[in-house]
Design brief:
The structure is a single chain. With 64 residues, this protein is mostly helical. It has a domain of 31 residues. 80% of the residues lie in helices and 0% in strands. It is built from two helices and no strands. The radius of gyration is 14 Å and the shape is elongated.
């Protein structure tokens, strides 16, 4: 695997991990009835951004 491919894989793993962490934080806030807070809304924006990145990887066949 080339250095570039390794960097891509690292970035992809970090993106997926950050997405999963964000979803977990949102679920925790939601269970605490804090889904109307600024923090929750910021997490939602982050989640949508990461989700868009992951979707683009799928569109271009870089991940399944």
């Amino acid at each position: 695997m080339s250095e570039r491919e390794e960097k891509f894989e690292k970035m992809l793993q970090a993106t997926v991990k950050e997405y999963d962490d964000t979803v977990r934080k949102m679920e925790k806030l939601k269970s605490e009835n804090k889904s109307n807070t600024v923090t929750y809304k910021q997490l939602m924006a982050t989640k949508l951004t990461l989700q868009n990145m992951i979707s683009r990887y799928k569109i271009y066949g870089l991940i399944e």
